[in-house]
Amino acid sequence: MDWKRKLTSRKFWISVAAMLGSIATSIAGLAISNETVTAIGMVCGVVSAAIYAAAEAYVDGKSVSAAEIIVETAEKEETAEKAVDSQ
Q1: What is the CA radius of gyration of the chain?
Q2: Per the structure, how many domains does the chain have?
Q3: What is the pLDDT along the chain (87 residues), one digit of tens a residue?
């Protein structure tokens, strides 16, 4: 894992902020004995983690797709060069 890239990612820091906000909301709900506020904080924490995971999966999928296109293009160019050389 590229930690430098991860620690400079805006998605990562937004997710961290959302998680911290969710934890703070849950603690506040516990402090004032409000189960609704506590539940909202917990749900938001889970949702922020899920959104971050989905965003990373999307980016990873696009990276793999782009790599496949590059390999296919290189193979086509190599085949074309061989065809020209054989003539």
Answers
A1: 23
A2: 1
A3: 677 877 888 888 888 888 899 899 999 998 999 999 999 988 988 888 888 889 888 888 887 777 677 777 777 767 766 666 666
